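Need residues for this backbone.
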């Protein structure tokens, strides 16, 4: 067992945050931790890490445990460059390679008496180097940096990165360190969809135990095989990923309720018998035995009902025209950088369109551009757009939460305003706080309440699920599915996109392309390199094909080259193994050792060059 907790209780100001918690994490186990906002998930992680000490109970960690931890906003600090900071992970590999180079140089001028000792040292070093795969550290660094979105910025100083970029770089370092237990607290917060898929593939193939706190249901389903739920200070373990947990949790709740009701029926039956028979001489003895049974019975607590999820409901008064928003032949830029050139886009009534693309491609910029009515952007008749801003810029941090909502909706009574906020999960205590005192999830719920009250027939949403816990995300999904208006939204939550969208707009390589259909169909089309379905007549002004003939031909050439490189690398690896064997067998033959080491260097140089090309192609 890598880490185990036994009857752990911890609280703040005497109020338990986690209570009588027991569980363990075994080697190579993949575990997800779930819990609502404020339930204590981060507190639990800090207890496991030793950053907090339990009030009661014990936390045990394996001696010498190699542990990696990514906090929610834990950026990486270094005076080095992006690439240099990753090279630090492989300092021991560089030391071994340096010793090998020195030994090989000495061998070139060694006397006959020194050759045997140097050959033995070289053989030992090469075994250690092979075991650590030290020759490929450069490839491993470039693979991780490229996958995590740092391609092309290797020489950039770490100190110049944004907070989100530093958090991603911290994760890169942890992936390269390969700890026995990797603990990730909301690792998907700063990742775009492309990077999320890459990270899932990488972690799936990597050895070691994983403990993940996340609201990304795709991520949990793909990577976890056990789920720990933290609710009301208690931890319950379920075998399976997130989807399996949902089924098992409902089954467990029903079973506990059945057991409680059955026991209550038994208690009522025993008490009734005692009441009727205790005073009778002939039945007093049997009545007393039932009294003893009641006294010895371990009374089950009535299962608490599941926490009430938030409720959202989006309505509007007036139906808009068929073409809701359109823009033709427009350019989009951020400062001096062109994001889109000569793009066109149309949003039709009733469409629910997800804007997707890598970080920095201009999704939010496009959303705000279409929100305005400038530079050729046209809004249809009776269109009323309600906008959700992920930055909550329309909220005054100093204002009381109730006033922030009621002030913009003064036509409501205070009771009505409080009812709407309570439905979103903001209770009496929450609405009395200043906006700046609310958690990220609470601010998101306040912003969504304001969105409801605007009664827009078109919703523009910028990352609406950020900071929301899973019940709130699922409640929002249900509300948007029921909404019969039009939606244009940006999100990195793949399950959310799948649940809501019936159309996907992709920004890639400075182009805007449109796919009509569900998110799974879109992913399948991307995977199989299928062209987009023909656009409907009403939307002829949209971009036409999903991928051009030239793009498909270029990808075919790339795939062919990848196969060539893979075949050559396999041959080079086989030759390297053969040469290593020959080196050990020729330790006493100085000239033969020298020939072998020279060929080994050529093999390794060619491998490095091919790996670099391979990384760029994939």
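Answer:
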């Amino acid at each position: 067992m890598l880490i185990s907790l036994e009857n752990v209780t911890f609280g703040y100001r005497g109020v338990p945050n986690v209570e009588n918690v027991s569980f363990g994490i075994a080697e190579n186990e993949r575990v997800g931790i779930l819990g609502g906002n404020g339930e204590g998930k981060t507190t639990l992680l800090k207890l496991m890490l030793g950053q907090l000490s339990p009030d009661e109970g014990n936390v045990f960690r394996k001696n010498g445990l190699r542990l990696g931890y990514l906090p929610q906003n834990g950026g990486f600090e270094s005076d080095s460059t992006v690439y240099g900071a990753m090279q630090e992970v492989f300092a021991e590999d560089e030391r071994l390679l340096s010793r090998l180079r020195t030994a090989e140089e000495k061998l070139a001028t060694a006397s006959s008496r020194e050759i045997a000792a140097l050959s033995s040292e070289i053989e030992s070093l090469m075994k250690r180097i092979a075991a650590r795969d030290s020759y490929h550290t450069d490839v491993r660094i470039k693979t991780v940096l490229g996958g995590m979105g740092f391609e092309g910025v290797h020489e950039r100083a770490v100190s110049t990165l944004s907070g989100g970029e530093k958090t991603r770089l911290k994760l890169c370092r942890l992936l390269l360190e390969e700890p026995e237990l990797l603990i990730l607290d909301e690792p998907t917060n700063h990742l775009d969809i492309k990077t999320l898929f890459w990270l899932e593939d990488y972690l799936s193939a990597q050895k070691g135990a994983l403990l993940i706190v996340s609201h990304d249901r795709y991520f949990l389903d793909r990577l976890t095989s056990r789920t720990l739920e933290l609710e009301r200070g208690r931890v319950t373990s379920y075998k399976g990923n997130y989807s399996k947990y949902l089924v098992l949790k409902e089954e467990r709740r029903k079973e506990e309720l059945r057991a409680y009701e059955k026991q209550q029926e038994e208690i009522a039956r025993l008490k009734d018998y005692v009441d009727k028979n205790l005073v009778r001489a002939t039945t007093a003895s049997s009545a007393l035995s039932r009294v003893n049974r009641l006294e010895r019975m371990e009374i089950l607590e009535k299962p608490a009902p599941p926490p009430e999820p938030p409720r959202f409901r989006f309505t509007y008064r007036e139906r808009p025209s068929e073409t809701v928003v359109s823009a033709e032949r427009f350019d989009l830029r951020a400062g001096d950088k062109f994001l889109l050139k000569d793009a066109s886009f149309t949003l039709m009534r009733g469409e629910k369109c997800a804007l997707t693309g890598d970080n920095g491609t201009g999704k939010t910029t496009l959303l705000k551009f279409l929100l305005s009515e400038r530079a050729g952007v046209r809004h249809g008749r009776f269109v009323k757009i309600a906008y959700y801003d992920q930055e909550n810029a329309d909220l005054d941090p100093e204002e009381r939460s109730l006033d922030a909502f009621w002030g913009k909706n003064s036509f409501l009574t205070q009771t009505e305003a409080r009812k709407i906020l309570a439905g979103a999960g903001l209770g009496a205590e929450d609405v009395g706080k200043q906006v700046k005192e609310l958690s990220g999830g609470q601010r998101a719920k306040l912003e969504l309440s304001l969105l409801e009250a605007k009664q827009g027939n078109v919703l523009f949403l910028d990352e609406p699920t950020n900071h929301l816990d899973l019940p709130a995300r699922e409640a929002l999904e249900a509300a948007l599915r029921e909404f019969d208006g039009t939606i244009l939204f940006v999100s990195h939550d793949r399950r959310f996109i799948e649940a809501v969208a019936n159309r996907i707009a992709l920004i890639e390589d400075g182009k805007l392309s449109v796919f009509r259909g569900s998110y799974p169909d879109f992913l399948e089309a991307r995977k199989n390199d299928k062209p987009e379905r023909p656009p409907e007549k009403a939307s002829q002004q949209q971009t036409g094909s999903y991928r051009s003939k030239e793009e498909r031909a270029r990808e075919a050439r790339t795939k062919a080259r990848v196969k060539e490189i893979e075949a050559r690398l396999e041959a080079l690896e086989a030759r390297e193994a053969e040469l290593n064997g020959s080196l050990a067998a020729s330790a006493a033959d100085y000239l033969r050792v020298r020939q072998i080491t020279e060929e080994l260097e050529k093999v390794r140089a060619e491998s490095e060059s091919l790996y670099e090309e391979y990384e760029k192609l994939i």
